[in-house]
Request: fold
Amino acid sequence: MTKHNVSNIVFSSSATVYGDATRFPDMIPIPEECPIGPTNPYGRTKSTVESIISDHVQAQRNKLKKEGKSFDHWNAAILRYFNPAGSHPSGIMGEDPQGVPYNLLPLLAQVAIGKREKLLVFGDGRTAISHVGFPYGTRLLTPLTVDYASSDGTAIRDYIHILDLAAGHLVALNYLRDNHPGVRAWNLGTGKGSTVFHMIKAFSEVVGRELPYEVVGRREGDVLDLTANPRRANEELKWRAERTLEDACADLWRWTKNNPLGYRQSPPDDLLKALEENRKKGNAEKVQANGHSADTNGHTINGQSSNGTSAADHSNINGEEKPIQLTSSKDFMEAALSPRVKSDSVEAS
Reply:
């Protein structure tokens, strides 16, 4: 950061840094004040990087303060994701795991298109194979399949749509620039927990058929419940998850069924055409809404510049470098697909 003059950083951390929050009273849903205690290597790496970033930002602030210089431009946002899910609603951009995915929904997607025979549900080690034709309600109430202390015996996770996550990054970055908080952590989650069986049911309904699974032994490092308390992000960042679990399942299935080979194939023409039509419609609406808002010097007002392009395309105006201000997931997608002028911030994952 120091070498490249990057003073604001948004770090993609994880809820796994909390470990088993049920070891403390009143910590479900999990607030940012929950003590850190990861139970697996992934969580420990995220926790370690959080500490490195925090120490570096604080060291830079202390150094500049002692020198009598301005120091509040050094800041870090620690975003603790819960369980990212879904794909871009267009159906042309999504997750394309190489090898064995480590998340539930991509595994279900591979079962749905025949890449995998069945989903392995980590439970108590006693075999319980699903039988197509049995109502889910009957299976979910079977007490001998799994043994987590949840409503149906499977682990609980908070699934958040990736577009809500993208929006969280944007508001966090702008919060750093506007408020200079130093180092601040925020949970990004919905605040609603879903069990593994509930996820299987939700995705199966989108696919249109029941997907086979088998309960096997517990996976080392897994915990019972990772459900977010997102109140701090709701209040400070004015951010809230807007998309549902069903949205995430539908978007992921749209991506998977249309792109079974992932990025090793071209997206279907009808999806590309629909995306282009939506983009043209959105640009026309933006110009109509903001066409009167630009001054004659090329400055941007209300997100529109004098040449009709988005403010996200301009970080250098009249020779003065300006931070790129992104305020929506649509802006995020446009910025990701356009050449960027370097800014004072970087996102790490």
